[in-house]
Design brief:
Elements lengths: L1 H19 L1 H32 L35 H9 L3 H8 L2
Amino acid sequence: MFKNIIIAVLVVVILNLLVQNKQNVDILVNDLAATKNLVVDGADYVKKTFDKEFSVHEYKVDIDIPSLNLQKEPFSEDSDIQEDTFFDQESADKAFDNLTEAEIMKREGP
């Protein structure tokens, strides 16, 4: 607590001494402007250095893996793979072809 009071008093004394002479204020403003320019130049240098050292390289890699080049769905109508089911659509169509509408209604129920 006591240290904070001493720091506050020293800041007030330094500001009073600074403001008493106009030349001191001009020196402070010039130093702040020079510091700003140095910071901006340093940031630009760091950015250029990072861009040069860690630049992004684009590589094009041609991979020819047959499994990645799937042209069709595995169970589509054009594929050679047949899905195993208990229901065969062709035999069901043949069974209902010869029936009349009344017989179909009897089999399906009310």
